[in-house]
Amino acid sequence: MNLIFLWGLMSWLILIGAGLLEIFWALGMKYSDGFTRPLPSLITALLIAVSVYMLGQAVRTLPVGLAYGVWTGIGTVGTVIMGIVLFGES
Fold it and tell me: pLDDT exceeding 90 applies to what percent of the chain?
């Protein structure tokens, strides 16, 4: 395998990780109760920072439009599924 392939693969893995973190920080906003609960708010803020940082790393090699679309897509679908499972949302 060549280095360009491995670097591209790593960018995709970082992007998928960033999308998964987006699910958790979106759920964290629910648990933070409008950022009025200190610990859930702090955890949510940390997850947001790490997720956005990882997105930034991924767009170093991936096209920004594609990366942003995948990031928000993972976050949206995952948050909807977790909202149904955890909170009984429709």
Answer: 89
Look up residue 4 and give its two tokens. 């360009």
83 near 90, Cβ under 8 Å? no
- Please report, as a single letter, which amino acid is at residue 2: N
CA–CA separation, 4 vs 21, rounded Å? Answer: 26
Q: Which amino acid is at 44?
A: T
Q: How many other CB atoms are found less than 10 A from the CB of residue 61?
A: 15
Close Cβ partners of 62 (under 8 Å, ≥ 6 residues apart):
8, 11, 12, 15
Other CB atoms within a 10 A radius of the CB of residue 70 amount to 18
Q: Which of 60, 45, 78 is nearest to 14 (CA)?
A: 60
pLDDT in tens, 25-44: 999 999 999 999 999 999 99
